[in-house]
Design brief:
Distance between the termini of chain A: 97 Å
Largest sheet of chain B: none
Structural class of chain B: mainly alpha
Oligomer: heterodimer
Strand content of chain A: under 5%
Order of helices and strands of chain A: HHHHHHHH
Largest interface: A-B, 31 and 44 residues
Radius of gyration of chain A: 43 Å
Helix content of chain A: over 70%
Largest sheet of chain A: none
Strand content of chain B: under 5%
Number of strands of chain B: 0
């Protein structure tokens, strides 16, 4: 109870508690010397704070503000937003149309199976279609034990 | 504000004259630096003018104003990633001090309060400054900080205890 009341002391002094709660806190403070002491300390702090002075803003502040609002509102360049829009659209399109692990068709399977053969054609710089048969024959010879 | 929303700069100047010291003072207590506070107060009023069309008549004007100032203060602190100035070299003049001892005491109080403000979280500091230095009701502070009144009550109480502790240390 005492702890709950303690939490409400500042709000009580600020007049921010509902009437019923304010009455409860007032009764608790009247009955508890420790709470009463805490209230006095908070009051003293508030009095010291109210005695503090604050520097004055410089007179030029008014002129600065009024001249600033007299300017037409700064228009933001449109192109960064446009660029961002394009980038976002491109990203989305890429996500939608990016080929995902397309199933292998027969030609691709054949290509994969004969990659070694094709590499040989390339290495030997085959230009004549007749040479293809020679290379195929060489492969068969390699395969024989 | 209705006239300001229509671009009436004279009406805006009247609003500025009426409220600029409070906004400056709030920003000063938040940052601990008068130059920075002036920049933030300037930004607050320029933004107020530019966003006047969005002002709803149902809202209290000071809530709208302090909401803008608070957002700018919080963003400025995040951007600068700096702490509140706790120095005592440029403490404001204390006109009520009648003797050198009084002046020194006032300086000690100011320094203790600055240290306490510097040690608070940003939201504690903002809530405390609005409540204690500007006398805003908790409801308005809650709207300015986009928090519940219960949260504001807690923030202000914790902040008050920190200030009290610093003042007791200085005594």
């Amino acid at each position: 109870m005492s702890h709950d009341v303690e939490e409400d002391l500042t709000a009580w002094l600020d007049g921010e508690l509902p009437e019923a709660r304010a009455s409860e806190v007032a009764a608790a403070v009247a009955a508890d010397a420790r709470l009463a002491k805490q209230v006095e300390a908070l009051k003293k702090t508030r009095a010291l704070l109210s005695s503090l002075s604050t520097p004055e803003p410089s007179p030029r502040l008014r002129a600065l503000v009024l001249s600033e609002v007299a300017k037409p509102p700064e228009k933001r360049p449109f192109w960064p937003a446009l660029l961002l829009g394009f980038a976002a659209a491109a990203g989305l399109a890429a996500l939608m149309w990016w080929p995902r692990e397309a199933p292998l068709d027969d030609d691709r399977v054949l290509l994969a199976q004969n990659l070694e053969l094709l590499e040989d054609y390339d290495t030997m710089t085959v230009t004549n279609p007749d040479d293809l048969e020679v290379i195929a024959a060489m492969k068969e010879l390699e395969a024989e034990p | 504000m209705t006239r300001v929303a229509q671009g009436d700069r004279q009406a805006f100047a009247q609003l500025f004259d009426k409220h600029h010291q409070r906004v400056f003072r709030y920003c000063y207590r938040f940052t601990g630096d008068s130059g920075r506070a002036e920049e933030l107060a300037q930004d607050t009023f320029v933004r107020l003018f530019r966003s006047a069309a969005r002002y709803e008549k149902r809202a209290r004007f000071q809530t709208f104003l302090f909401h803008i100032a608070t957002n700018l203060c919080l963003n400025a602190k995040r951007g600068a990633a700096s702490r509140v100035d706790t120095g005592v070299e440029e403490l404001p003049h204390t006109p009520d001090a009648t003797t050198p001892e009084d002046a020194l005491a006032a300086k000690d109080v100011e320094a203790a309060v600055r240290r306490a403000l510097a040690g608070m979280s940003e939201r504690e500091r903002a809530a405390f400054a609005m409540a204690r230095f500007e006398g805003l009701p908790y409801r308005d502070i809650a709207l300015a900080l986009e928090a519940s009144e219960a949260a504001i009550k807690s923030l202000i109480h914790r902040a008050s205890l920190q200030v009290q502790a610093r003042l007791e240390e200085a005594a």
